[in-house]
Amino acid sequence: MPHLDYRAFVNSCRDERGVGHHTLRAYAQDLRTFASFKRKHHLTDPLSKDDILAYHRHLRDELCAKPATIERRLVTLKSYFAWRADRNSALPSPFMGVRISIRIPRRLPRPIDRDTLKAILRTENEMNFALQSRPNSCVMQEVTILMIKLLIVTGLRIGELTNLKIRDVSTDASQMIVRGKGNKERMVFVPDEELQSAFRQYCIVRTKHGSLDSPLFLNAVGRRLRSQTFRKRLRVLSHRLGIAPHLTPHRFRHSAATLLIEEGTDIRMVQALLGHANLRTTEIYVRVSNHALKRALARADILNALKH
């Protein structure tokens, strides 16, 4: 095979494994980067272990890529060559016998603190007053706050929320079917009765104006609300409330996980809610829950206990 057939690989990941759009785009980008390296250095098949090691040095020393980026590019490339070898045994993977160690600094999540969350939710009261004078201009803000509340209590990824269809939400709006990474489905619950009521009213309105297969959340022109559009709304809200660093959907996901851990929810339940395949991914929220640690220490009151 004289060239890198990355399009066939990406299509195979989409059709056979149900890989999501964002991951497919990352695969294509990773393989285009290697294809450029291969052309520049006039590499031909069969590639060798030394070619892979040279590519690693290229990413690290010439492109100055971050460790996480280097790891992702190599993992994608390894998957591609395994896929190719499976279809053509005459082209073995050059990763055979390759051992590359990449140290990735573990970054702690940055949840939104409780006071900031309270300030965000208080904006709903401001909108209720404004509805009387500017009803149309406040509709989008109402929907934005509704979505924020859903992110806080469910820990959904923003793509999971914006990809919801009307039929994915139960009649009483207490639960919804969510499609996560790898197109895996999971059930997510909306526990708060007041939020359920607001969510139910919103869904009733959407059902009157769209089919069950219609997107649940719409933008200003009546099309499916894109994740990027919602991020822009959060930037505007951040600027208005003076929140820095600015709000992002994933910070609400971090907040949902951290708050649940702080309130004593079993970590495996948090894992199921977030749709994490590996418990290790969820365990990081135990480390950042300093609020819960402070409360536990206060309750224990060790010195006072020793006096008696």
Average pLDDT level = 86
- What is the CATH superfamily of the largest domain? Intergrase catalytic core
Q: Please give the number of β-strands.
A: 2
Main CATH class of the largest domain: Mainly Alpha
Poorly predicted runs of 5 or more residues: 129-137
Radius of gyration: 24 Å
General form: globular
Structural class: mainly alpha
Q: Specify the CATH architecture of the largest domain.
A: Orthogonal Bundle
CATH topology of the largest domain: hpI Integrase, Chain A
Short structural description:
With 308 residues, the chain is mostly helical. It has helices at 6-17, 21-40, 49-62, 67-87, 114-130, 135-154, 158-162, 193-209, 227-241, 249-262, 267-274, 279-288, 290-300, 302-306; strands spanning 175-179, 185-189.
What does this structure look like?
With about 300 residues, the chain is mainly alpha-helical. The chain folds into 2 domains: about 80 residues, DNA polymerase, domain 1 (Orthogonal Bundle); about 180 residues, Intergrase catalytic core (hpI Integrase, Chain A). The chain is built from 14 helices and 2 strands, in the order H-H-H-H-H-H-H-E-E-H-H-H-H-H-H-H. It has a two-stranded antiparallel sheet with strand order 1-2. Strand 1 and strand 2 form a beta hairpin. The longest helix is centred in the N-terminal third of the chain and has 21 residues. The N and C termini lie far apart (about 80 Å).
